[in-house]
Amino acid sequence: MTTSYEQLAAMNKAHLWHPFTQMKDYNASDPLIIERGEGIMLYDMQGRAYYDGFSSVWLNVHGHNVPELNQAIAEQLGRVAHSTLLGMANVPAVQLAEKLVRIAPEGLTKVFFSDAGATGVEIAIKMAFQYWRNRGIPGKSSFITMNQAYHGDTIGAVSIGAIPLYHDIFRPMLFPAHVLPYPNAYRHEGGSAGAMEETLASLRALLESRADEVAALIVEPIVQGASGIIVMPPGCLREMAGLCREYGVLLIADEVATGFGRTGAMFACDLEDVSPDLMVVGKGLTGGYLPVAATLATEEVYDAFYADYAEQKTFFHGHSYTGNPLGCAVALASLKLMEERDIVQGVNKKAAFAARRLSALADWPHVGDIRQQGLMIGIELVREKAAREPYDWAERVGVRVCQRARELGMLTRPLGNVVVFIPPLASTEAEQEAMIHILATAIRDVMEFGWGREG
Ligand code: PLP
């Protein structure tokens, strides 16, 4: 017996609590319930088609229902669905670890699996903390993060998060972190150069006075995602990495959003030849199919844990589904497809196409800034363009644009007043054209015609 839309909608309202969602708003309208996907389209229960304009929260690579990926899972399913990595291995987890090391920035040679970006980040910060303890330098125990950073929603990741709306309420239960200014060129009176100078000077000053108590700096390399797709000035990441090295502080690159081709390189760190001490990947690792994340470490970090058991240097951390064979098998298949289809090079061509199309919006009165790195794009809407005056959050302009886009056949989610366009890496130019047309229409309808305004 199949369940009707009406039945599911009622069950949804009765029982499902959605992430990052005010349920009072959600329950006020009929829920969107996705039934299937094909290519870069998602279809709801009523058969309506939507472009996946945000890659199902920034993770889809090859589209949905991809035969090669489906097959990889089916084949692995015929062998074993799950077996633990605690003290033993499984075939695809070993193969994936080896593959990740081959494509990662130089020096990252060890892979620790988990199942979400946030858990990958927890692992990185715990590893960094314990690394210094294992080396007999316990004083190096604090962390540096960047203003407006987002690293996931577990308590450690929230401690090094710096988005007031998401994080402030939890402050009393978090460990404190040093917060550096993030170089946001659009919001800095000195522009790109001034923003970068401020960040680097702050980092140097902090390290000068506090390096002996800092374990690591964590950064979203090149693009700070959840704060509004804010692209770093060129060279900034490389300089930051140099300062960390100079002052003996570990560098953790959180590539959860930027990894696997999204920024036009396999990893954002590659854009500036940066080799971090620890790197976290997730999201696109499985092509957007299954929850697998990984924390990569250098030999030096790993060696600090490698000792006789009695020395108690073991990394006591793990998750039930760590290194899940189905997830690792589909990750391997996705990475193979990426190579066969030259996805990363393709991103650069497609990014140039998107930039040309989006440039038509740059002169629009309420389009403040169009930020892009590869196929990570954010359009910041402002009330007053010359003064860069933001809309009040209560006007919900980002939400309204995304609601209108959905009506017009494309799914995406805003970040405050920033409209996000993060299409699957496999989307064609024709598909991008159609999506950008929807996006532009939605922005015009809300900005010019007041679509969705209350009252
Ligand atoms: N780190 C970054 C940079 C992210 O953008 C995200 C999610 O958007 C995370 C970590 C958390 O990943 P997950 O949602 O898989 O826990």
From TrEMBL:
The record marks 20 as: Participates in the substrate recognition with KAPA and in a stacking interaction with the adenine ring of SAM. The keyword Transport does not apply. It catalyses: (8S)-8-amino-7-oxononanoate + S-adenosyl-L-methionine = S-adenosyl-4-methylsulfanyl-2-oxobutanoate + (7R,8S)-7,8-diammoniononanoate. Its EC number is 2.6.1.62. Substrate binds at residues 150, 283, 318, 413. HAMAP family: BioA. Belongs to the class-III pyridoxal-phosphate-dependent aminotransferase family. BioA subfamily. This is Adenosylmethionine-8-amino-7-oxononanoate aminotransferase.
